[in-house]
Amino acid sequence: MIVILKPEASEDLVKDIVSQIEGLGLQAHLSRGQFRTVIGVVGEEVKVDAEHLKAINGVEQVVAIMKPYKLASREFHKDDTVIEIGCPAGGTVKVGGGNCMAIAGPCACEDEAMVHQLAREVRAAGATVLRGGAYKPRTSPYSFQGHGEDALKWLRDAGRENNMPVITEVMDTRHVSIIEKYTDVFQIGARNMQNFNLLFEVGKTRKPVVLKRGLAGSIGEWLMSAEYVLSQGNRQVILCERGIKTFETSLRYTLDVSAVPVVKSLSHLPIIVDPSHAAGDRQFVPSLARAAIAAGADGVMIECHDCPGKALCDGPQALLPETFSQLMKELAAIAGVLGKKFTTTPAVKGSPVAV
């Protein structure tokens, strides 16, 4: 349920109400709007006494949230959440609330030189966050599994060179601390959407989390997974639609573009789209990316490579940097029609600035 406070509620009163709620054995999560402060009350339903909460001085209304995902729901937080991701040399990248971001880079960090080269190229094209895999979840145990901590160092250094936040996938609770040390954003892959122990662990951190939808996950299940992260105090969750399994076999997965407006109606969390993994074929990636932004997505995550034919993984879906550059111009134009814009990273001396 949510507790709506009276407009005149002071900061001391808010703290007192939070203390009383926590004294009942419940969790209190603050959401501050332009005119109202709302407290989300989370805990075992049998412990929640609405009448007791209504009687607290300063409380205007107590409303039950019918959705099982409390903190992720629009009922808890009416306005779009805007997440700001810090850049290594200052400034932030914003996503949500009219701000779009572009995440780009290689599927896997293959060697130090290629990570730095691609970072410069995707930044010049308009990317604001650098992606790259260090620990690679592969279907076959005999496939390339990533370079681990060495790859994290390459990614961090390339991000610093270009003043770009960096993101990589975390697969295991044992990797959370080391990935937190080197990167700015955690990525939870589709196959780990319901790895609840992992969700709890990244929820205990205070770094943004990009949560991909599972291969067969419903929207409700996806939002419940986000709730696991939010319930631990980490409010910086970005949802990512990346295609689901259907009967269709023309592409690797079916990109559920309809998930974007549906999620927007149900949740305040930003949502981006990964057309690379949905398509599995670079010729279709631009069309899916354009459709995603037109549907209202808050950004895209796209794989790029200078020589896709020699990529150690997912080469067929990787865009060449020049193709990505052209696509970014098109996506910016579509976003502009909707009154949104792609944010850019602050300039770094000697580096190109994305337009």
Textual characterization of the structure:
This protein is of the alpha/beta class and 355 residues long. It has helices spanning 11-23, 50-54, 112-125, 149-162, 176-182, 196-203, 219-231, 259-266, 275-279, 285-294, 321-337; strands at 2-5, 27-32, 37-42, 59-63, 83-86, 92-95, 99-105, 129-131, 166-169, 185-188, 209-212, 237-241, 271-273, 299-303, 341-342. The strands form 3 sheets. Strands 7, 8, 9, 10, 11, 12, 13, 14 and 15 form a 9-stranded parallel sheet that branches. α7 links the parallel β11 and β12.
Short description:
With 355 residues, this protein is an alpha/beta fold.
Topology (elements, then pairings):
Layout: E1 2-5, H1 11-23, E2 27-32, E3 37-42, H2 50-54, E4 59-63, E5 83-86, E6 92-95, E7 99-105, H3 112-125, E8 129-131, H4 149-162, E9 166-169, H5 176-182, E10 185-188, H6 196-203, E11 209-212, H7 219-231, E12 237-241, H8 259-266, E13 271-273, H9 275-279, H10 285-294, E14 299-303, H11 321-337, E15 341-342
Parallel strand pairs: 7-8, 7-14, 7-15, 8-9, 9-10, 10-11, 11-12, 12-13
Antiparallel strand pairs: 1-3, 1-4, 2-3, 5-6
Helix pairs in contact: 3-4, 3-11, 6-7, 10-11
